[in-house]
Amino acid sequence: MNDSLASLPRKVVSGAMLLLDEAGRLLILKPTYKDGWEIPGGLAEAGESPWQAAHREVLEEVGLDREAGALLSVEWRPPMENVGDGVHFIFDGGLVTAAHATSLRLQASEIAEARFLPPEEACALLPDRLAARVRPALAVRPHGPPVYLEAGHIRGGPGYVGAPEAERAHLDALVTPHGDPFAHFDAWYAAAAAVDPQAQAVNLATADARGRPSSRMVLVRNWSPAGFEVYTDTESRKGLDLTANPFGALCWHWKAPLQRQVRVEGRIERLPETSADAYWQARPRAQLIGRVTSHQSQPVGSREALLGALSVDAALYPGPDRPPRPARWGGYLLIPERFEFWVHDDDRFHRRLEYARTGEGWATRVLQP
Ligand SMILES: Cc1cc2nc3c(=O)[nH]c(=O)nc-3n(C[C@H](O)[C@H](O)[C@H](O)COP(=O)(O)O)c2cc1C
Question: Fewer Cβ close by (within 10 Å): the C or N end of the chain?
Answer without folding.
Answer: N
